[in-house]
Amino acid sequence: xxxxxxxxxxxxxxxxxxxxxxxxxxxxxxxxxxxxxxxxxxxxxxxxxxxxxxxxxxxxxxxxxxxxxxxxxxxxxxxxxxxxxxxxxxx
Length: 91
Hints:
The chain has helices at 15-21, 26-34, and strands at 3-5, 11-13, 38-44, 53-59, 62-68, 74-81. The longest helix has 9 residues, at 26-34. The strands form two sheets. Strands 3-4-5-6 form a four-stranded antiparallel sheet. Strands 1-2 form a two-stranded antiparallel sheet. The protein is α+β, with helices and mostly antiparallel strands. It has two helices and six strands, in the order ββααββββ.
């Protein structure tokens, strides 16, 4: 997986590569993105993990994660299934 950083320091991932991880075409992935079905987050490593980052992208019950080294290289990546958060109950 090729990951770059833009001039603002944000991570930029290639759509075709990420779509493939989810078993989608690039167009299907872009459509899900436009519809707001894809969420992402970035976490910074602390302590002995300082300088590393964990990127997470979620679509439905699937989550792709990558751990980036301090040099910005993918050290590890995985695709997992996650439970959907229960909907809050109404009083």
